[in-house]
Design goal:
alpha/beta; Rossmann fold; GMP Synthetase, Chain A, domain 3; 20 strands; globular; binds xanthosine-5'-monophosphate
Amino acid sequence: MSTKNFSKQKKKIIIIDFGSQVTKLIARRIRELKIYCEIINLKNFKKITNFKDVKGIILSGGPSTVTKKTYPSISKSIFEKNIPILGICYGLQLIAKVFGGRIKKSPKKREFGEAILFEKSKSLLFKNFFNKKKTSVWMSHQDAVIKIPKSFENLASTNSSRYTAIQNKNKNIYGIQFHPEVTHTKNGFIVIKNFVLNICKIKKNWMIGIEKNRIISDLKKKIKNDRVICALSGGVDSSVVALLVNKAIKKNLKCIMVDTGLLRKNEFKQTYELFKNKYKLNIKLINSKKIFYNKLKNVVDPEKKRKIIGNLFIKIFEKEAKKFKNVKYLAQGTLYPDIIESRSSTGSKSSKIKSHHNVGGLPKKMRLKLIEPLNELFKDEVRKLGKSLDLDPSILKKHPFPGPGLAIRIVGKITEEKIKILQNADEIFINSLIQNNLYNNIWQAYAALLPVKTVGVMGDTRTFEYTCVLRAVTSEDGMTAAKYNFNNEYLSQISNKIINGVSGINRVVYDITSKPPSTIELE
Ligand code: XMP
C-alpha cells in the first residue's frame, strides 16, 4: 500500500470511494469536525492489512449497481472487525446485498433531488436529526432496497422507498439511501457527526497547528541534508510550500520564479520582494517574457495558448533546475482534491472543458523526486496553514489566478500593448474592490480584454478602442459560480475610472453569466 494513499500513523475514518461525484464532500464534513479521514479507492482499500487505527469506515455512493452480476464490493470479513460502518446510497445497497437483502432497479422507487424522510425507529445515528419525526433529505438513486436483511432493522422511509435507512445495532453497521454530505440535506451534518463522534467515538485529532508541526518534521526527516527546488508563483499553494520547506531545511531550498510576462501589474516584483525581504527566501528570478510573447504571437485558439504556456514553463523550469547541482527534490503544491481526482475509482473521466495547468503542476518525468507537503489538505486548510505560517494577507486572501495568466483573459491574439492595457484596467478594478471593502466578499474578480474595437466619443473626439469585460463571481470551489451583485452606482464609477485611467479602452461591460453555462475565465 502506498503511504500516499494510506498513512499508517493516525487514527482515522476511511471513506471507500465507489465513484460518487460528492465523495470529497464526505471528507470535508469529517475534517470540519476536526477528525482526520482519508478517501481510498477500492483497490487500495483491499491492500490494507492493519486496521488498528481505522476507527470507522464509510462506503460512498457511486454509479454501480448491485443488481448486476458483478459489482464493486468489499469482503464480508470487513464487517466482522468491530469497526463501525456507514454505507451511503450505493454503500447502503452494498451492505444490504452482502447481508442477504434484495435490491431492485425500480423506476417507481427512484428519487432524484429533495425527498421527505419519516422516522420509523430511534437510532443513535439520527440523534437530533428529525423534527417531529420527519426531515428533508437529498436523494440520487435508481436502485432501492426492497427486502431488508434479517439482522437489520428499518430506521426511516420516504413515500417512494421503504428502506431508506437501516441499522444492525449490535454490529454497528448503518446504511442510508440519502446523501448527508450535501448541504441540500437539511441536517445532514448531524448524521455525519453522530456517526463519527458518537458511534465511531474517535477523538478530535485534526488541527492545523498539529498538522503544521507534523509536515515540517516529516520534511526534515525526508530531506535531511539534500537540496530542494520549488517553483514559486506567488499563489497561496506554492507560497505555503516554500515557507514550509524553508522552515524545515532553510539554506538548502532554492525557489525559482519565472516571469512569463503574463502576470498582473507589478505582481512578479511584489512577490519577489515579499519573499526575499520578509521571509528571506533564496530565490532565483528568470525573465522569460520575450520567449512567452514570441511563442504566443498570433495564437488565437485558447487550448493552443494553454498548451504553449504549460509546455514552455516546464521547459524553462527544467533548464534552470539542471543548473543547480546536487538537487534531489522538487517541492510542489499538489492538493488533496488533485490527488483524489486523478485516481477515480471508476476510471471514468469527465469530459474535458479546458486543459488546466498550474505552475505547480510540473512533470513527473523530471529526474527530481517529488515532495508534496500539501497533498493531504483541502484549499481552505492550506489557507489556514498559511495563516499559521504568518503568510502575508496579500497572498493569503488573493483570489485564484489561473496558471496561463492574462493570456486567457485577452481573447484572441496577444500583444504587449494589450497586456499593458489589461494590466492597467485590472489594477484599477482590483484596487477599487479593496478600497470599497468588496474584495473579500468576492470569490474571484478580474478584468479581461475583448478583441473588439468599438466607437466612442471622448472630449468631442471620436475614439475606436477595445472593450474591457469585468468579471466578479461568488463560488465555493470554482465548479459553479454566480455573478457578484454590484450596485449600479458602483458599476458606473468603476467604468468611469477605467475609461479615464486606461488609454486603449473606451467601453466597459460587466459579465453577468453564471457557471454553468459560462466558465469563470473567458478562455
Ligand atoms: P473555469 O474558467 O474553468 O475556472 O471556470 C475555474 C477556476 O479555475 C481557474 N483556472 C485555472 N487554474 N490553471 C489553474 O491553476 C489553469 O489553467 C486554470 N484555468 C482556470 C479559474 O481562474 C477559476 O478560478
